[in-house]
Amino acid sequence: MDIQKEIIKVTSVYFEDTLDYQKLSKTTKAYKSILNTICEQDLDIEEGKKDIALANGKALGTFWAALCLDDLLRTRQFIRGINKAIEDQIKANKKQIHILYAGTGPFATLILPIIFKYKKGTIKYTLLEVNPFTFKILQKVISKLGLEGYNIDLINDDATKFKIDPKNQPDIIISETMQNALAKEQQVPIFFNLMQQVSFDTIFIPEKIELHLGLKEAGIPTETLQIKHYNKIQKVLDISKASVFPKGQSKSQYDNKNHFQKIKTVIKNDTLKGFNQLVIITEIQVYKNITIGINNSGLTTPLFIQNIPEDTKGSVLIDTQYQISSEPKLEYKITLPNHD
C-alpha cells in the first residue's frame, strides 16, 4: 500500500465543501487507522497517558492528544482553515510559505493532509512538540511516511518559551492546544509567546477564540441542547492578534505577568426568565468564515458554572478574569441576589 496516496485519498473528504457527518466519521476512522498502524506503538500505556504539568498549563499525554482526531468537526474545520490560509498566501505571491505548528501531538494530524496536497518546496514546516514520548512517535511517523524530501524541521521544545529565528519567521502559526473555556491547557501562553515574536501580518490559526458568559434555557435535556437554547450575555475574553496587538501598536496589551482585564457582568432579573444555568460559552474563528460554533465540538461545549434558582429576584453579578497558572482558566466569582 502506498501510504501517501492512501492518506491523500482518505483525507480528501476534509476539503469537501459539503458537510456529510457519515462520510466524515468514516474518513476519520480510516485516517486514524492508518496513523495508528504507522506509529507501531501502543499509546494506551502509562507513559502514553501521562500529561506533562508545566507552570503555565498542561501538555496532554500522547494517548489523549491522539484522541483529538475523533472530534470530527474540529479536525475538519482546522484542516480547512489551514488550507484556506495557504491558498491566500499563494494568491499573495509568497514564493515559499513557512508554517509553524505548535503542539503537533504524535501524528501532526492537522497538517499531514496539507503536506501531501502541495508540491515539495512550496511550504516549509516547523513542527514543535513538548512531550518527549509524543515527539519520538512524531519522528517515526514522519520517517515512515517518507517525508525526508519535504522541508520539515522537528523540534522537541516548549512552545510557550520557544524562540523564533528572526530571519526565518513563519507566515502561518497553528496551535490547537485547548479545551472548552480555555481551561487547563497551554493555548493562551503559547499564542502570546509566539505573537510577540512575529509581524502583525502573520496568520494565527485559530484567528480568534472568544469566551462569553451566557445562560442555558430551562427544561431542555442535555442530549437535545442546541445553539438556540443558549443566550450569550457578555464577552469576557478575546484571544486574537487584533485584540492582543492592536494594529499600529508595537506593544501588546498583555504584560507578561499573566494579567488580564477584570470584567464585571450584571445580568438583570428580566433577562434570567426562562433560564436556569449560567455557562461559559466558547466560540472559535478558525480562519475567516471557517468557524466552530457552540456545541459543534468538544472545544465549544458550554461549561456549566452555576444553577440559577427559579425564584431568583434581582440581578446576578459575575466578576471574571482569565488567569494563566499551572491550571489556566477563567476565574469567576458569582453573586446571586440575597446570597453572599
What labels describe this entry?
340 residues; alpha/beta; five-stranded antiparallel sheet; 10 helices; 15 strands; globular
Class computed from helices, strands and strand pairing: alpha/beta
Radius of gyration: 21 Å
Helix and strand pattern: HHHEEHHEHEHEEHEEEHEHEEEEE
Kindly report how far apart the N and C termini lie. 66 Å
Beta fraction of the residues? Answer: 25-35%
Shape by Cα distribution: globular
Largest sheet: 5 strands, parallel
Let me know the number of strands: 15
Stretches with pLDDT under 50, minimum 5 residues: none
Q: Please tally the helical runs, counting DSSP H or I stretches of 4 or more residues.
A: 10
Q: What is the helix content?
A: 25-40%
How is the largest sheet built, in terms of strand order? 5-4-3-6-7
Determine the mean pLDDT: 92
Describe the structure.
The protein has 340 residues and is of the alpha/beta class. The protein has helices at 3-11, 21-39, 46-49, 62-67, 72-91, 112-115, 132-144, 187-195, 241-244, 269-272; strands spanning 52-54, 57-59, 97-102, 123-129, 151-156, 172-174, 203-205, 208-217, 230-240, 263-267, 275-287, 290-292, 303-307, 316-323, 329-335. The strands form four sheets. Strands 5-4-3-6-7 form a five-stranded parallel sheet, with helices on both faces. Strands 8, 9, 11, 12 and 13 form a five-stranded antiparallel sheet that branches. The protein is globular and about 65 Å long. The relative contact order is 0.13.
